[in-house]
Specification:
single chain, 347 residues, seven-stranded mixed beta sheet, four-stranded antiparallel beta sheet, 26% helix, disordered C terminus
Length: 347
């Protein structure tokens, strides 16, 4: 039986509204697997293994079932057209192997988008846990504070396997709400933020691509009727002072400081601690996220571990062209893999 997936594709073409913590509707964003749904999902996990498919070979066409098909579409439509933060609860992280959880997670994620590389090694399956010596010294491999930021992708997803002994709370802030506030309070600064700022690509650019964007990366922009925002090095004053101080004006500094202050307002911040078996899908062009520092314990389930997906939406989310930081040769998102230079053999 061939199932039609067209209901999962496309993006809204209207001006979406942002939200603050009090306005966020948690009930509308939470979906808990029913026993019947979980049975069908695990049946699909077994099916992909029996087909001999690797995790990253699983497609939404394979990972589908008539009893789940409309529910998959409902999750995706709610995510794209709603608040941009959707939670799925009930992954059996204590009952099934990590590989089985990956199969289930990747299969569900395939309905939201296409998995892409998360680092210069070309990893499609990411782990957020303490990883000494991680490529690029990325903050997701440490236990330190990860400040508010956007990832360079349409959709970010995280699935909690283990919590830390203490700490590790996630926070989310709506960039669309920040846009509305600045538009109302300081429209003069909004114009600067829409113009944007250059950004260093942190050695993650493809071969032959400049290490710094040769264009300004907007913080706020609109395409095809849809508002989008990006809060990376283009919007962080410390990054601009470190890399581009010679072109910063006092007005630029005021705009970036004002934006940071708006995002830090207590009423803007949604606090959330993922429990084992919880997954979130984050509309990365509409909000920022952060993570508190944490302390791992010695027990088998006290070392913080989250699985991570970077997903490219279908089709690509319409955003201003200059909001793309890395322009890969194939036109896809993610970080273009680079050849690993082998260490020279000892004499």
């Amino acid at each position: 039986m061939t199932l039609d997936h067209s209901a999962e594709d496309g993006w809204p073409n209207f001006t979406k509204k942002g939200w603050n913590a009090a306005e966020y509707d948690a009930d509308a964003a939470l979906f808990v697997f029913t026993p019947r749904q979980l049975e069908r999902l695990l049946g699909l996990v077994d099916k992909t293994r029996e087909m001999g498919l690797g995790v990253t070979e699983i497609t939404r066409e394979v990972f589908d079932h008539p009893e789940l098909h409309d529910e998959f579409a409902r999750w995706v439509r709610t995510f794209k057209g709603g608040q941009g933060l959707l939670q799925l609860r009930g992954f059996p992280v204590r009952e099934r192997s990590e590989e089985d959880i990956w199969r289930m997670y990747w299969g569900i994620g395939a309905h939201f988008g296409i998995g892409v590389s998360q680092n210069t090694h070309g990893h499609l399956q990411g782990k957020v846990t303490v990883q000494p010596g991680l490529v690029g010294a990325r903050v997701y491999g440490t236990s330190t504070l990860a400040p508010l930021h956007s990832d360079r992708i349409d959709i970010l997803s995280l699935l909690c396997i283990n919590k830390a002994k203490s700490g590790g709370e996630n926070t989310f802030v709506s960039l669309l709400k920040a846009w509305e506030i600045i538009e109302a309070e300081r429209p003069d600064l909004l114009a600067l933020l829409k113009r944007g700022y250059p950004q260093h690509r942190n050695s993650e650019e493809p071969e032959g691509c400049a290490p710094v964007t040769p264009y300004r990366v907007p913080v706020f922009g609109e395409a095809d009727g849809l508002r989008s925002s990006y809060y990376g090095g283009n919007a962080m004053l410390f990054h601009q002072e470190q890399c581009f101080a010679e072109i910063l004006t006092d007005a630029d500094r005021e705009a970036l400081t004002y934006l940071a202050d708006v995002l830090a307002r207590p009423e803007m911040i949604l606090h959330q601690t993922l429990e084992p078996g919880d997954a979130v899908f984050i509309n990365n062009m509409e909000m920022v996220h952060s993570r508190a520092a944490f302390v791992d314990g010695d027990g088998p389930f006290e070392k913080r571990l989250l699985l991570r997906l970077w997903l490219q939406g279908r089709p690509l989310r319409p955003i201003p062209q200059d909001m793309r930081i890395i322009n890969n040769p194939d036109g896809n998102l993610g970080i273009w893999p680079k050849p690993v230079v082998a260490a020279a053999a000892a004499d």
